[in-house]
Design goal:
Strand order of the largest sheet: 1-2-3
Number of strands: 3
Radius of gyration: 19 Å
Strand content: 5-15%
Oligomer: single chain
Number of helices: 5
Shape: elongated
Distance between the termini: 56 Å
C-alpha cells in the first residue's frame, strides 16, 4: 500500500425510524469510494454508525409507546443489518450509545431524565408564554443532580 491514507465515513443518522433508501444510497456510494481507493493501494479506514443520543429518538420512542433504549437499539440494529445486507466493506460500525468515548457508564439514564425535564419545562414555558432562559436550564440541572 502507498502512504496515502483515506478516512471515509457516512453521516451518523438518528435512529428515530428504520433506515430509508436515501441512507442505503449513501452507504453504497461511500462503499464504492472505499473499494476504489483500496484498489488504488490507499490505506483506507471506512466507518459508519448511528447517533443513538438525540431528542428525536426519545420523541419517536414515546410516540410509539416504547421504552427509549429498546426502540433505539432495535432501529440501530436495522441500520447495521442494512450494511451487512448490502455487503458494505466498512471497517467499523459505531453506535454513539455503545462507544465509551461518547457516553459514561450510567449516563444514559441521566441524559434521558434531563431531556424529559427540559421538554417538560419548555412545554410549560410555552404554554405560559414565557421564554425559557439559561437560569431555567441551571435550575433544572440542579434539581436533577439532587
Amino acid at each position: 500500500m502507498n502512504s496515502t491514507k483515506t478516512y471515509i465515513t457516512t453521516s451518523i443518522p438518528y435512529v428515530n425510524a428504520a433506515p430509508h433508501v436515501g441512507f442505503a444510497l449513501e452507504l453504497v456510494q461511500a462503499d464504492a469510494y472505499a473499494r476504489h481507493s483500496r484498489l488504488l493501494g490507499k490505506d483506507v479506514r471506512f466507518q459508519c454508525g448511528t447517533d443513538d443520543n438525540s431528542l428525536k429518538n426519545v420523541r419517536a420512542a414515546e410516540a410509539a409507546g416504547r421504552p427509549v433504549a429498546e426502540f433505539v437499539g432495535e432501529n440501530a440494529d436495522r441500520f447495521e443489518q442494512l450494511g451487512r445486507q448490502l455487503q458494505i466493506s466498512n471497517d467499523a460500525f459505531v453506535r454513539t450509545s455503545m462507544d465509551t468515548r461518547h457516553i459514561a457508564p450510567g449516563m444514559a439514564t441521566s441524559i434521558e431524565k434531563a431531556m424529559r425535564a427540559f421538554i417538560a419545562l419548555a412545554v410549560s414555558s410555552s404554554t405560559n408564554s414565557r421564554i425559557w432562559t439559561t437560569e431555567d436550564a441551571r435550575s433544572t440541572v440542579s434539581r436533577l443532580r439532587s
